[in-house]
Write a structure and sequence with these properties.
Keywords: Signal. The chain is α+β, with helices and mostly antiparallel strands. It is built from 5 helices and 24 strands. The chain starts with a helix and ends in an 11-residue tail after the last helix.
């Protein structure tokens, strides 16, 4: 009887707490559904972004970040005080905001929170957002037109080489609206959206990882400006139109050292079990080694390609291993981040822990490579265990023909290698 009374009491207390939370949520000012325009404050610059809130009264409220034709969706957590929180999916960051009353009505005020423990919020970015505004850089009615077209392919030269390699920009201009992508040897900026006004232009992108702002001027067919990588750094550039410009060949940047034909490593998987290319599981199989980090946007784009490809082709005699180098040198952190990563992309191949995200460390631990030039790097190994191709970086769908060429070459090589006979067929396992 006493136990039943305690159970009833606990149940009633739980209902009361839930009711109080619901009443507090109903009484707190709520964000409106629909389109919003946000502004980050980054190094004295305004970095605008667009998003949409939907389903706030449902069991699955959602925030959608908008960049040109690209859409990235995130689950919204509603707090009792009326504030909202959206984890950036596989990135260790979150958008947090509360509703404030202003002279122009309600607005969202918040932060982009960096959740990596060792940085302890040092890279947070403040933002404000206003409802019902779908423009990005120029308000309706204030467009002054453009003095030149940036449509086409551009050679982008960094003024400070320490800021990174030169780039190629693919831009599309319709009226004063500007979209496109900047490509580097390590990947791309994802889809940029912006505007040309007079002899100036602006582009921005925010889809979960650190936001990007590009601004510049146009003079005599040349451009110059700066790329602001949100919480990271600023790189000044100049550029000229060029149909012939290309980046260094991504198939030749990382390669095996002289005299080596194989790759060797042993890393723990999510359960702590050692995984090696010498394991029986990989004997006689074509193996794709994907060197990644959950912090890396091009790595997530590459995984978004590889994970479904593997599900569709696994029965053909192919295996894959994702070697993750993370922002914390902690196996527990690896388990937490990569467990979420695995579930989000429905990854059905092995994921192992390489260590801290550092190119030099990755080079040392992936014995046989000359240098790990970028995350991601994709290494394709044939049935005999010999490395047949290494691809540095990743070109996403926004790069158009570059992406199509990558996919075509990837599939052609895999078809070729899978058609080769298993040299160990009919022999006992090692």
């Amino acid at each position: 009887m006493r136990h039943a009374y305690r159970s009833i009491l606990r149940h009633g207390l739980g209902l009361m707490l839930a009711l109080c939370a619901a009443q507090a949520l109903a009484a707190a000012p709520q964000p409106a559904e629909g389109r919003w325009r946000g502004e980050f404050a980054v190094n004295g610059e305004v970095l605008p972004f667009n998003f949409e809130l939907t389903g706030l009264d449902s069991e699955a409220p959602r925030l959608t970040l908008i960049n040109g034709s690209r859409r990235d969706h995130f689950v919204v957590e509603r707090q009792p005080d009326g504030s909202i929180r959206a984890l950036m999916n596989t990135y260790d960051a979150a958008l947090e905001a509360r509703v404030e009353e202003g002279s122009g009505g309600r607005r969202l005020v918040g932060h982009y929170r960096d959740l990596v423990p060792r940085r302890n919020g040092a890279n947070d970015l403040a933002f404000v957002a206003e409802h019902g505004r779908e423009w990005r850089f120029v308000q309706p009615g204030r467009d002054i037109g453009s003095e030149a077209s940036l449509d086409g392919k551009w050679a982008i030269l960094n003024r400070d080489r320490s800021a990174g390699q030169n780039q190629v920009a693919l831009l599309k201009q319709e009226g004063t609206r500007l979209t496109g992508v900047f490509m580097t040897v390590v990947g791309d900026t994802r889809e940029l959206e912006g505007v040309v006004q007079g002899d100036r232009f602006w582009l921005s992108h925010f889809s979960g990882p650190s936001p990007v702002l590009i601004r510049g001027t146009i003079e005599d067919g040349q451009i110059q400006g700066a790329i602001n990588f949100g919480i990271y750094n600023v790189a000044k550039f100049e550029g000229h139109r060029s149909d012939e410009v290309e980046l260094p060949d991504p198939y030749r940047l990382t390669y095996l050292k002289d005299g080596q034909r194989t790759l060797d490593f042993s890393f723990p998987d999510l359960q702590g079990r050692p995984v090696s290319l010498r394991d029986d599981k990989y004997r006689g199989k074509v193996v794709i080694v994907e060197v990644i980090g959950t912090w890396c946007p091009n790595c997530t784009d590459q995984t978004q390609f590889l994970a479904p490809w593997f599900r569709q082709n696994q029965q053909r005699g192919v295996e894959a291993i994702a070697v993750a180098f993370e922002q914390e040198d902690s196996f527990e952190y690896f388990q937490q981040r990569l467990g979420r990563f695995r579930d989000f992309f429905d990854i059905r191949y092995d994921i192992v822990y390489g260590g801290l995200a550092d190119k030099k460390l990755a080079t040392e631990r992936l014995r046989g490579l000359n240098y790990m030039a970028a995350f991601p790097t994709t290494i394709i190994i044939d049935r005999r265990g010999e490395v047949r191709e290494i691809y540095t970086g990743y070109t996403g769908t926004v790069t158009g023909e570059y992406y199509e060429q990558y996919v075509a070459r990837f599939n052609a090589l895999l078809d070729e290698l899978l058609a080769e006979p298993d040299p160990y067929a009919g022999t006992a396992a090692r």
